[in-house]
Amino acid sequence: MKKTTFLLLFTCLITTSIFSQNLQSPEQFLGYEIGTQxxxxxxxxxxxxxxxxxxNLVEYTSxxxxxxxxxxxxxxxxxxxxxxxxxxxxxxxLNNTNSVNNPDNNTDKAIVWLSYNVHGNExxxxxxxxxxxxxxxxxxxxxLKNTVIILDPCVNPDGRDRYTNWYNQVKATPYNASPxxxxxxxxxxxxxxxxxxxxxxxxxxxATQVETKNRLKIYNTWLPHIHVDFHEQGINDPYYFAPAAxxxxxxxxxxxxxxxxxxxxxxxxxxDENGWLYFxxxxxxxxxxxxxxxxxxxxxxIGMTYEQAxxxxxxxxxxxxxxxELTLVDRVAHHFTTSLSTVEIASQNVEKLNAEFNKFYxxxxxxxxxxxxxxxPDKIAALKSLLDLHEIKYGSTNSGKIKGFNYSQNxxxxxxxNENTLVINTNQPKGKMVQxxxxxxxxxxxSLTYDITAWSLPYAYGLExxxxxxxxxxxxxxxxxxxxxxxxxxxxxxxxWDSMKDARFLAALLKEGIKVRFSTLEFENAEQKFNPGSxxxxxxxxxxxxxxxxxxxxxxxxxxxxxxAANTGFSKSGPDFGSSEIKIINQPRVGVLRGEGVxxxxxxxxxxxxxxxxxxxxxxxxxDYFKNIDFSLIDILVLPSGNYGKLLNKETxxxxxxxxxxxxxxxxxxxxxxxxxxxxxxxxxENKPEAKKDTTATANLIPYASREREGIKDLITGxxxxxTLDKTHPLAFGYGDSYFSLKLSSNSYSYLSEGYNVAYLKDxxxxxxxxxxxxxxxxxxxxMIFGEERIGQGSIIYMVDNPLFRAFWENGKLFFANAVxxxxxxxxxxxx
Length: 832
Prior knowledge:
This protein is α+β, with helices and mostly antiparallel strands. The termini are far apart. Strands 24, 25, 26, 27, 28, 29, 30, 31, 32 and 33 form a ten-stranded mixed beta sheet that branches. Strands 1-2-4-3-5-9-6 form a seven-stranded mixed beta sheet. The chain contains 23 helices and 33 strands. Helices cover 30% and strands 20% of the residues.
């Protein structure tokens, strides 16, 4: 027995010795000192493969691929014993989230998740990730006995490589520290976003991007005690770490706030020793739920953002306005230090972290016990898909009348449930996240925030809802049977229109060459009534299409659309199928402007909408050559939010106006709308704030320290407002009498005197959630939100509020689909 033990010990020592001999530092492996070059993502992956192959303290795994086919990866770093028992450790830790059935669970490990390089051009942190991993498995093994580190070296590989490849191409040798050098001025769109130009640090809760979807699958299997998101900020701001700034969401516990300070003090100790500057408690708050610090916080973690001076401007070294040179070597050192400091403080507080983590999951004190929702089955299904991503439980109810806060009425009122009502209770492990995502109006301790202040999911998904202080009985939801259509020889087929699933179905039909019509009026046929916007696919329109019936049925079944077969085009009421009110939908050729002056984020939202949501092709057009394009090759031009002052000069506007008069269509979004305000030939006029008496004198008397807070009177930071709809206009087909819009700016435009005001605000606009400055709210009165102006045969569509914002405002997307397919799209134009 002793001999066997000796042999095992000897074998272990030999194996460890071989590992140690083969293990290389980042500098040895890459051939250069970390911080003297930007490392390509493929080389980062290779280094982590190397340490996993040469250390028994690291497991390295891929959790998916990006849109550009780069691997998404993470390393699990801990002691040999912990890695051998990692599934048991994980199981015990997750049991800690069930405080009802497992109140005495006392796990003895701290779980720390470190996320690097979520913004691609904030590239120093991935370099620090390699150093951190090496240091942990060589010189900090003692911490690994009671700590498990999940380390994601690069959350955004596509953005990182976009930045590093560009920088490596243009940098001088040696690097040029002058801020005017090319290497410090990124071209559009920059390396910050992912492939679809989304900000992945705003996508945690909405999970619209492939990187986030894949990461959440892994994150939900760990639910760490601590999560850190590593970032960079302006070159003159040295380093930021916790504690965070106000406002803190009220769901955040005193322990979470206090422990942030404890971690911050540990960082400060090392920064002070090295003579490094830093700041805390400013700018970066904990409110918006979709950040890399807030989302983990609402899941029980100590969620934090660390911000190093630098970003895409800094390169390998840059001269700051404070008179010193900021180098990549410096930036890496700072992130490396806070990385280790975080693991250290976690290792020292294992018992406390586990005890408080368990307490976080005790949800009996939440004000709302249940949320119940009614609405379109497609919209309910879309919300359920989001809940599934977060592993939030839901069901149905037989509660009949439910008393509580009625979202549509914006007050306490009764709500009628039925067998299809969706119910989410807060008495579940992720009940606090449920409250954050569903609460009708988030409490603000401070109106100075870093992002939007409203996001309530019932409004975002266009559902009737109630928040109840009573816990509703939940039943299992019966599975919805799939639509099964069989081949018939009908005169026409009819399909409803009220969701993005319907829009995807239409896009698929058009791409297959199937001709489709839509009704502008209500009609009755085949013993059913159909609302305006309903799709009508006739045998007559498709008489030359081979296998029309079978192809249509196949597409309908694939998209889960139930078709109604009509044996005659003669309607019992409303228009017959040959009426001019049953309009043909031509397959539009869509151009989308991109490039300098265009909001890369909004372009990305539009690009993602067409390619990933709608599955419909577009033609991106760059501002560099926009003036020289042949406009006859497109039917629709989408202008994302942006600054078009130089691009849309008098000559270009005349060119566009001529194209519109001949049948073209412009869809303008956000700031792009203002490009047409007050211009000759356009009916759009901006609402100007009322002039104030003695404005200059009053402004001069505002104290310097109060200017920022005074300025928010004119701001709107993502509030939800109820708009009135003209549901008879094709832009609003599929909607009711009102729409809850996410207002992102104080831009305000008068009603169109010649045109169609489709969504608009009346006197004293109703702000149901979020912050709107007092002056900005006044200026919203009697303003147009969505409208159409006819110019000759064509149209310009104004979307003052962005219906595609971050791809999470689900109920806005159909407006955009309507703008593309329904609004003034029936005139056939020869396609070249």
